[in-house]
């Protein structure tokens, strides 16, 4: 007969389904990785981030101009007012990278955003000053994953309103579809990178960043309830 020793109190501690002991933290220490942040050329990452800052104005121009050409309206305005509003929006979006080139504070924020985005996509450690901010970025990106389901519908809602007798409709429709395809690919990669970061966080074990009161409204049932309430209010006003 084999005599087994009685388990010690330490062996009676609660465990995760994997068998690892529960430490009382929300994080799972076995999942964390600690790559060397100095292995990344962050100066090059910041330079690429400044160049990528011009992609947003390009996307705004592509989506806005194609919508104006297809439907003649933009943000609820029609005709010349819609075109002038689009010009104002493009100038406002272009002002951000232009200001970052001359204002040190804005330049630092732009560089930090580039580091965070690269850390999330490449799954590398951005350093002690940005780890928690990347945690928040990943968490909020996952909350907004529902936007990927709406992206195929948005261009269709524009195309059904288009005046197909115009000669500019076909090129504008192609630009619109290309812009939404690029946005959908970016969103899919962002959500995939965020899911990977949440599953296997990078860097030393750290507390979970607090969730502000408004963040849960970015997705889930709360957002659905907000949208339903908005629709009911609009219907009540119209009727």
**Record field, number of beta strands:** 2
Mean pLDDT: 84
Uncertain runs are: 6-30
What does the overall shape look like? globular
Please list the strands of the largest sheet in the order they lie side by side. Answer: 1-2
Could you characterize what this model shows?
The chain has 9 helices and 2 strands. 59% of the residues lie in helices and 2% in strands. By secondary structure, the protein is mostly helical. The radius of gyration is 24 Å and the shape is globular. The model is unreliable at 6-30 (pLDDT under 50). It starts with 41 loop residues before the first helix and ends with a helix. It has one domain (31-199).
Give structural attributes:
239 residues, two-stranded antiparallel ribbon, mainly alpha, 9 helices
Summary of the model, kept short:
With 239 residues, this protein is an all-alpha fold. It is 59% helix and 2% strand.
Secondary structure layout plus pairing:
Blueprint: H1 42-52, H2 55-71, E1 73-74, E2 77-78, H3 80-100, H4 104-122, H5 131-143, H6 147-150, H7 153-159, H8 169-199, H9 220-238
Helix pairs in contact: 1-4, 2-3, 2-8, 3-4, 4-5, 5-8
């Amino acid at each position: 007969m084999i005599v087994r020793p009685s388990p010690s109190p330490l062996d009676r501690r609660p465990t995760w389904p994997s068998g690892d002991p529960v430490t009382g933290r929300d994080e799972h220490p076995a999942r964390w990785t600690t790559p060397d942040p100095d292995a990344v050329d962050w100066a090059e990452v910041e330079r690429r981030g400044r160049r990528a800052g011009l992609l947003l104005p390009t996307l705004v121009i592509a989506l806005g101009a194609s919508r104006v050409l297809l439907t003649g309206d933009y943000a609820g305005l029609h005709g010349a007012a819609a075109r002038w509003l689009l010009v104002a929006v493009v100038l406002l979006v272009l002002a951000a990278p232009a200001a970052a080139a001359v204002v040190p504070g804005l330049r630092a924020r732009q560089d930090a955003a580039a580091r965070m985005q690269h850390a999330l996509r490449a799954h590398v450690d951005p350093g002690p000053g940005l780890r928690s901010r990347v945690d928040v970025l990943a968490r909020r990106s996952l909350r907004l994953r529902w936007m990927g389901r709406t992206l195929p519908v948005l261009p269709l809602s524009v195309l059904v309103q288009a005046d197909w007798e115009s000669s500019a409709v076909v090129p504008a429709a192609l630009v619109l579809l290309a812009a939404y395809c690029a946005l959908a690919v970016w969103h899919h990669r962002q959500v995939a990178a965020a899911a990977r970061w949440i599953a296997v966080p990078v860097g030393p074990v750290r507390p979970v960043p607090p969730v502000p009161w408004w963040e849960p409204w970015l997705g889930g049932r709360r957002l659905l309830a907000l949208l339903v309430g908005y629709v009911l209010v609009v219907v009540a006003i119209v009727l």
